[in-house]
Amino acid sequence: MEIPHTEKIASPTEASRFPLPNLLPESEFLSLIKCLNEKQRKYLLNLTNIVKTNPSEPFYHFISGGAGVGKSLLINSIKQVLERFWIHQPNNKPDDIHILPIAPTGTKSKATIAYMLTQAQNLQHKKTQNMQYLLKLCTETKYIVSHNIAVPDGISNGSPCILKKVIYGQLCEKGNREQIPIRAYVQFEKETTGEKTRQKLKNIIQADGITDKTWTPIQRICRSFSLNENTHIQVTRNQLPLLPSNAQTIHCSQSCTYKNILVFITKNLSRKLLYTAFSRVESLQGLHISGIYKKPIRATIENDPSLREMIRMRNEAQLQFSLTFPEEVKNNENIIALFHNVRSLNLHFPNVCSDRTLLACDIIMLAETWSQPADRYEIDNFTIVYRTDCASTKRKAFGTLIYVKSALLPHINILFQNESISGTNHSTVVALTVCNKTVIMVYKSPKCQWLVLQQQLQQAINTSLQNNVHEIAIMGDFNIKYQVSDPNFKNLNDFMIQNNCFMILDPTKVSTDHNSLIDLCFSTNPQTTSFIFESVTSDHKPIWIELINP
């Protein structure tokens, strides 16, 4: 089936802004993060911390690795995490461009780079706007979408799909009664792709008699371009935004993986292009070659400037992380205690169970778990020593959980626990001793009075001293900004000084995505080391301390 285009002379049209990049559903996003290996996870956390804490500072990182090691996975994770951060920042509009991938994986062609740059400038200058003069359609055949139709819905330039059905009709033009394809139904690789479009066009889908809920309608679109470089005449082409994709250029195959491929070799294919093409297949058995293969010249420092630069970066420019990871300092002579306002353990529990940083800690204290009594939150090799849940059937910003490594359990003693609840205001203080040291966990809801928390803290500190434990660390979400302008800051600061406690976190840093320091840590031992970490699932950052076990 061949579909001719329709064209008419028109005045230039203004290009629309590049739409908001596609965000994965929360469940898919969390699954994506779980797929990262150790190095990828650490890099993502460190990069996230750099962007969140110094958003105006430019930086340049180079990520390398062979085919299939997960570069695209990492880049997609970075895009998803940072997009989620930026869209929630004050004064940011949903349709603003926050993340713009330029040749997102591998060595993209010059045409692709130019295309992405023009998108960044909200312009389109490609000769025919990627609109085919003659488009051949065949059902049950692979196609790709040729334009950004609904990027937040996953329907963007390059989205792979299978053509399932073509609907015929007439264009709304006077004197044109020709029956032509006006709509195509395609099936994308992921069922979630096109979900919003299917909901939006459900009446059209019903009228077309489509019963398969995974088929997405693709409407004809119009794009304008200059007739040639020497004239100002504009041509508008009306066409279905699809391209056959049973065959692809090597550049367009970047980040794709197939069971079987056929590579057409010409004499002009470089070593880089051969590598890119051959590495698209899962195994050597699935690689087929058409043409004469000639072994390329081996890359050397003398003939390959890219190799020279990679060697220089490995030797002279190794990335140093700004974050300190608990698993890197953990040993048999210290105890690591971590506090995190997790913003729903119920939602993030699978990620907590697989978080290598959390699992390296000896004591894990979580607030705002949104938990209910029937929920099961067991973690291998850990024991729950304290827990509170939402009292009602409705989940809300309530609940705490304290985990202790099971091997450390004989050395743990709960000295004090107190929970104050008044309507929606509440505060929780729990004190436990470990190896002649007391760790006090604190959580105060935003509107809870400081005097309530002050009384709880004083009782916890007094209980520790009465048990002859004088080294005390206090950590948690105080919901009091550590700055002079906060009316409760002076009260908190004076209280800690009176009890011989010192702020051991860096007061110049922030503990939330809202540029505030409200997760705090104090200690009677000023030599106690403490750190602010990073999170990709909560707007609060974890804080952790290292206690030396004599």
Q: What secondary-structure arrangement, pairings included, does this model have?
A:
Blueprint lengths: L1 E3 L1 E5 L15 H9 L3 H16 L17 H16 L23 H11 L13 E3 L5 E4 L14 E10 L10 E9 L6 H6 L1 H6 L7 E5 L1 E6 L7 E6 L2 E3 L16 E4 L6 H8 L8 E4 L14 H12 L9 H4 L4 E8 L3 H9 L2 H4 L3 E5 L14 E7 L11 E6 L6 E11 L2 E10 L2 E8 L5 H17 L5 E6 L9 H12 L3 E2 L15 E5 L5 E4 L10 E6 L2
Parallel strand pairs: 11-12, 13-14, 19-20
Antiparallel strand pairs: 1-3, 2-9, 4-5, 4-10, 5-6, 6-7, 8-9, 13-24, 14-16, 15-16, 17-18, 18-19, 20-22, 21-22, 23-24
Model description:
This is ATP-dependent DNA helicase. One of its GO terms (molecular function) is helicase activity. It contains 13 helices and 24 strands. The strands form 6 sheets. A 6-stranded mixed beta sheet has the order 15-16-14-13-24-23, with no helix packed on it. Strands 17-18-19-20-22-21 form a 6-stranded mixed beta sheet, with helices on one face. The protein has a 5-stranded antiparallel beta sheet with strand order 7-6-5-4-10. By secondary structure, it is of the alpha+beta class.
